[in-house]
Design goal:
InterPro entries: NAD(P)-bd_dom_sf, SDR_fam, SDR_oxidoreductase. By secondary structure, the chain is α/β, with parallel strands linked by helices. It has one domain: NAD(P)-binding Rossmann-like Domain (Rossmann fold, 3-Layer(aba) Sandwich), CATH 3.40.50.720. The protein contains nine helices and nine strands. The strands form two sheets. The chain has a seven-stranded parallel β-sheet, with helices on both faces. Strands 5-8 form a two-stranded parallel ribbon. Helix 1 packs across helix 7 and helix 3 runs parallel beside helix 5. The chain is globular.
Length: 270
């Protein structure tokens, strides 16, 4: 898909991976509309901005309608909006919190896809790139709900690509590992904490922060999104940086070895 005059929506573009992706696509020649939930940016970005809340149907429909009204088409949708979840035991989140996590991280992608695909079908072309996670194929203890949302993103993306490819639309999922963005920004804490998990929760959170401090920046994901967008024959899965090695291990390492490695890395009892 050539960048000349191609119109892009990037959700969650106020910071981190979304902002880096919007900026990279803009410098590559795309006309980018980056969305956020109305929070002003400290500096003027290199792309157009829209207010959009992916958890509200009317907000999604209004933003897509605005872009179509201005440009007449949408060539690329990058579904990035979402939030992280602080390490915690699965039972430390209420049902309401679990639903909220899925509403943004997964249902937000569904809402955006439903709003954009009819226009892509009409124009006979388009590309959708969903930002997943290494935790979409390699579950992490004490991140059960977040892992579940990213597994859902991966499964949805695979099925959707089968459905839409004969209509000129392709779907890919980019699945990074740790990315060095502010850990405490836009992270949901458990709303039903239990003392039985307190020590191990604090230990896992400390370990995650240690790894994040030396992790790749969001630019590595932005470059992978651009690669997927430009590919004549796009792959279904893209795993930038460390994630590519983790995908290899997931595929070929014995289950017991991988299991022990995950626990050792998080400093959990084997």
């Amino acid at each position: 898909m050539k960048p000349k005059k191609s119109i892009v929506i990037v959700t969650g573009a106020s910071s981190g991976i979304g902002k880096a992706t919007a900026e990279r696509l803009s410098t590559a020649g795309y006309k980018v509309y980056g969305t956020s939930r109305g929070r002003a940016q400290a500096e003027q970005p290199s792309f157009a901005t829209l207010s959009l809340d992916v958890t509200r149907d009317e907000s999604v429909e209004a933003a897509v309608k605005e872009v179509i009204g201005i440009e007449g088409r949408i060539d690329l949708l990058v579904n990035n909006a979402g939030f992280g979840v602080a390490p915690a035991g699965a039972e430390e989140s209420s049902i309401e919190q679990a639903q909220a996590i899925f509403d943004t991280n997964f249902m937000g992608i569904v809402r955006m896809t439903r709003a954009v695909v009819p226009h892509m079908r009409q124009q006979g072309s388009g590309r959708i790139i969903n930002i997943g996670s290494v935790l979409g194929f390699l579950p992490m203890p004490y991140m059960a709900l977040y892992s579940a949302t990213k597994h859902a993103v991966a499964g949805y993306s695979e099925a959707l690509d089968h459905e839409l490819r004969t209509m000129g639309i392709r779907v890919s999922v980019v699945e990074p590992a740790y990315i060095n963005t502010p850990f405490d920004a836009n992270v949901m804490k458990p709303d039903a904490p239990l003392d039985v998990y307190r020590v191990i929760r604090e230990g896992v959170e400390k370990r995650v922060k240690e790894v994040l401090a030396s992790a790749d920046g969001p630019g590595i994901v932005a470059e992978m999104v651009l690669k997927a967008a430009l590919a004549d024959r796009p792959k279904l899965h893209y795993a930038p940086g460390l994630a590519s090695r983790m995908r290899f291990l997931r595929r070929f390492a014995p289950a017991g070895v991988l299991d022990a490695g995950v626990r050792k890395d998080l400093r959990l009892p084997v």
